[in-house]
Amino acid sequence: MTVTRTHHHPFLPYTPPRLPIEEALDRGRAFLQLLDGRRSVRWFSPDDVPAEAIELAVQAANTAPSGAHQQPWRFVATRDPELKRRVRTAAEQEEQRFYHERDLPDWHAALARLETDATKEFLTTAPWLVVAFAQKQQNGKKTYYTNESVGIACGFFIAALHQMGLATLTHTPNPMTFLSDLFGRPGERPYILFPVGYPADDCEVPDLRRKPLDEALTFVL
């Protein structure tokens, strides 16, 4: 049945193919297997990664849904050694305060099994640093659902990197305002700092287990 609608803005037909259910489920299982092999990495190889890989990952991020399709994000990438050094210096200053000066026993306890500390060597070792900035305004106008939109885009970015065999880490030193200054993005809020590269040959990750399905999903029938 064809429905006739009246639009006041341009619309296009959207008719993706409906897959046979077994093919659809096979694709879902393959995608799950791919993502289940993803881990956050803190030990990177210095081996170069072509700029096109970053471009492809950001193009994938640009396909994410966003509030009112405002796409309130900007990804800024660098492989400049001096800028990476300055980022690391500023980040480690904030991390020193977090680990040694701020009274956050529960937060520190939650991180204990990851064995993280104030040293962030990955910020200078990884060939690329990519900062996702959230744009609370665009052209002087407020954006809507900014945090949700940028978060989804960052998820697509991470998945695209993993698809290409690359690794990353969602690094969020607090506060992160120094990134706006270092990357020349006044008026934009740093959302996540991503080191991007290949895992080091001797890379290790914590032995963690993901939440089982029965704790992540509830059907209400």
Descriptive tags:
39% helix; four-stranded antiparallel sheet; NADH Oxidase; alpha+beta; 221 residues
Distance linking N and C termini: 29 Å
What structural class do helix, strand and pairing data support? alpha+beta
Please mark out the parts with pLDDT under 50 across 5 or more consecutive residues, or reply none: none
* Pattern of helices and strands: HHEHHHEEEHEHEH
Major beta-sheet overview? 4 strands, antiparallel
Helix amount:
25-40%
**CA gyration radius, whole angstroms:** 20 Å
So what's the overall shape? Answer: globular
Strand order within the widest beta sheet: 1-2-6-5
CATH architecture call: 3-Layer(aba) Sandwich
Q: Please count the helical segments.
A: 8
Percent strand: 5-15%
CATH superfamily: NADH Oxidase
- Overall tally of structural domains: 1
What is the CATH first-level class name?
A: Alpha Beta
**CATH T-level topology:** NADH Oxidase
List how many beta strands DSSP finds. 6
Give a brief rundown of this model.
The protein is an alpha+beta fold and 221 residues long. It has helices at 21-36, 51-61, 81-100, 105-111, 122-125, 146-163, 177-182, 213-216; strands at 73-78, 128-134, 137-138, 141-142, 167-168, 189-197.
Summarize the helices and strands and which ones pair or pack.
Elements: H1 21-36, H2 51-61, E1 73-78, H3 81-100, H4 105-111, H5 122-125, E2 128-134, E3 137-138, E4 141-142, H6 146-163, E5 167-168, H7 177-182, E6 189-197, H8 213-216
